[in-house]
Specification:
binds alpha-D-psicofuranose; 10 strands; metal ion binding; TIM Barrel; manganese; binds manganese (II) ion; L-rhamnose_isomerase
C-alpha cells in the first residue's frame, strides 16, 4: 500500500481505552499510589479524554462493573460526550465477591450461578443507559485440583448461563467472551482457549464473538494464527492489547514484542478487518503500575498505530507474487521491509494534517494536565485490579 493510502486507513483507526488503566494498580505485593489519579469514574473518563485529545484515535472508554458503578449512567455518558468520548464495552465482574470462590457462571451451586447471571443482566441495563453495544465477559472460573468438580458439567452450566445472558441482550447488542489459559485457577480454567470461547459463541448465535487478550496465551503461542482463524470465521470480536514477558503481565502493548504486534496487525490488514465497520474492536487492557498512567496509555496507542502503519505498508502484490512463486526468502523479505520501515514520520505528518501535535507524548507533558490533577485530586482510587 502507498503511504497515502496507508494514511487514509490510519485516519479511520480507533482504539478503545480501559477505564481501569487510569486508577492505581500493582501486583499482589504492592500497589503504588500515584499523584492525581482519578477518584471516581467521572475523573477516569476525563483522563481517558486526554489520551484521545493528543492521539485523536482513542474515542471510546470501556467500563468495568462494579468498579465503575455510578448512580446515574445516563449522566455518566453525557459527561463522556461533553469530554468528546463515548462509553465502549461494558465489562462484567464476577471474580471479586466471596460467593465466587468456586466459580460464577460454572459454579456447582445454582444460587451462585443465578447471582452471576443477574449481575450480567445488570450490565445489560448499564449498556442500555450508556448506549454501549457490547457486553464483555471474562470469567475467573476454574479448578485448582483434579477432581475438585466435573470439567464437563461445568461446561454444561457455562453454556446454560451464557444462553440466559445472551437472551437478555437487545437485538442491537452483542456479547464477547474472553479466554485465558490460567490464573486465578491453576489446574483447569473453564474458558481457557479460543476454541472453547468460539464453541460457546457459535452455540449462542451470531451476536457472540471471541475476545483475544494478547497476554492470555502460553509462551510461544502463534497469536497471529488465532487471529487469522477467528477472522476466517467472522468471530473475532475484540482485542485486549497488552504485553507479556511471563504471564498476564498487562504491560504496555508493543513493549515486549513489537514484532508480534506487527504480525497480528498484518493479519488484520490482510483480512480488511481494520475498517471501522469490520466488527473488530481494538482495545487496550493494561495496568500502569510504575509508569504514569495517561502517558502510558498515549504510548500504547502510538505503539498500536506504528504497528498498524507498518502492516499497511506491506507490499501486498509483491508478497502475493513471492508466495505464489514459492520464493520463501523473497516473501519473508517483503514482510521484513515493511516491519523495518520507520513509520513515525508518516504518523507525525498524519497528525499534523488532523490538526494534532505531531508528538503526542511531549504535547501532553507540556499541557500541565498532570500537575493540575496532582494538585486538585487528593485520595485517588485503586483501579480495582491488583495483579
Ligand atoms: C483478566 O485477566 C482480564 O484480562 C479481563 O479482561 C479482565 O476484565 C481484566 O483482565 C481486568 O484487568
Ligand atoms: Mn483482558
Ligand atoms: Mn488479563
Amino acid at each position: 500500500m502507498t503511504p497515502e493510502s496507508a494514511k487514509a486507513a490510519l485516519r479511520d483507526q480507533t482504539i478503545e481505552l480501559p477505564s481501569w488503566a487510569f486508577g492505581n494498580s500493582g501486583t499482589r505485593f504492592k500497589v503504588f499510589g500515584q499523584p492525581g489519579v482519578p477518584r471516581d469514574p467521572y475523573e477516569k473518563l476525563a483522563d481517558a479524554a486526554q489520551v484521545h485529545r493528543y492521539t485523536g484515535i482513542a474515542p471510546r472508554v470501556s467500563l468495568h462493573i462494579p468498579w465503575d458503578l455510578v448512580d446515574d449512567f445516563s449522566d455518566l455518558s453525557r459527561h463522556a460526550a461533553d469530554l468528546g468520548v463515548t462509553i465502549g464495552m461494558i465489562n462484567s465482574n464476577v471474580f471479586q465477591d466471596d460467593d465466587y470462590m468456586l466459580g460464577s457462571l460454572c459454579h456447582p451451586d445454582a444460587a451462585v450461578r443465578r447471582k452471576a447471571v443477574d449481575h450480567h443482566k445488570q450490565c445489560v441495563d448499564v449498556m442500555r443507559a450508556t448506549g454501549s453495544a457490547h457486553l464483555k465477559v471474562w470469567l475467573a472460573d476454574g479448578l485448582n485440583y483434579p477432581g475438585q468438580d466435573s470439567i464437563r458439567a461445568r461446561q454444561d452450566r457455562l453454556a446454560e448461563s451464557l444462553a440466559e445472558i445472551y437472551a437478555a441482550l437487545d437485538e442491537d447488542q452483542r456479547m464477547v467472551l474472553e479466554y485465558k489459559f490460567f490464573e486465578p485457577a491453576f489446574y483447569s480454567t473453564d474458558v481457557p482457549d479460543w476454541g472453547t470461547s468460539l464453541l460457546h459463541c457459535m452455540a449462542l448465535g451470531d451476536r457472540a464473538d471471541v475476545v483475544l487478550d494478547t497476554g492470555h496465551h502460553a509462551p510461544g503461542t502463534n497469536i497471529e494464527f488465532i487471529v487469522a482463524q477467528l477472522l476466517r470465521q467472522g468471530r473475532l470480536g475484540a482485542f485486549d492489547f497488552n504485553s507479556r514477558f511471563y504471564a498476564d503481565d498487562d504491560l504496555m502493548v508493543g513493549a515486549a514484542d513489537p514484532f508480534q504486534l506487527f504480525r497480528i496487525m498484518h493479519e488484520i490488514v490482510q483480512a480488511g478487518a481494520l475498517a471501522p465497520d469490520s466488527g473488530v474492536n481494538f482495545m487496550l487492557d493494561q495496568c500502569h503500575n510504575i509508569e504514569p498512567k495517561i502517558p502510558g496509555q498515549i504510548r500504547s496507542v502510538m505503539n498500536v498505530q506504528e504497528a498498524t502503519a507498518k502492516a499497511l505498508l506491506v507490499d501486498a502484490d509483491a508478497l502475493a507474487a513471492a508466495q505464489r512463486a514459492g520464493d520463501v526468502l523473497g516473501a519473508h523479505g517483503v514482510l521484513m521491509d515493511a516491519y523495518n520501515t520507520d513509520t513515525r514520520p508518516l504518523l507525525a505528518e498524519l497528525r499534523e494534517e488532523q490538526g494534532l501535535d505531531p508528538d503526542p507524548m511531549s504535547a501532553y507533558a507540556a499541557s500541565g494536565y498532570a500537575e493540575k490533577i496532582a494538585a486538585e485530586r487528593i485520595g485517588g482510587a485503586q483501579a480495582g485490579w491488583g495483579a
